[in-house]
Amino acid sequence: MNFNLNVNPHNLIYSDLVGLRVRVAASTDPTQVGVTGMVVDETARTLVISAGGRDKVIPKVSSSFAFSLQREVLVDGSSIAFSPEERLKRLQRRRM
Predict the structure, then answer these.
(1) Counted domains in the chain
(2) Which residue range(s) make up the domain with 58?
(3) Which of 24, 51, 69, 79 is most buried, with most CB under 10 Å away?
């Protein structure tokens, strides 16, 4: 479960994604489309999704993700293809 209660559709790409429910909406690898589960780890280039008792490593850049918040939010993987720390720095720069 994600304990960041302030995650919303507007700040999702700058937030910690671990603990969020997600579905792979599109991918260049057709075997990854439809993978649904919880984000259990994240690197700059991948999301690790726990799905059906197995962890699946999904590349961000070649995929789109549908995150379940108050509603489903579609995110192009290239917009989150940074480490969580780098995404936070980008948000701070945007607010300046």
Answers:
(1) 1
(2) 17-95
(3) 24
d(CA 55, CA 78): 21
Q: Give per-residue pLDDT as tens, 74-96.
A: 999 998 998 888 887 776 666 65
CATH code of the domain containing 30: 2.30.30.210
Residue 5 lies inside a defined structural domain of this protein:
no
Distances (CA, A) of 34 to 23, 29, 59, 78, 83: 6, 11, 14, 18, 24
b (16+ CB within 10 A) / e for 60-82: beebbbebeeeeebebebeebbb
d(CA 93, CA 4): 21
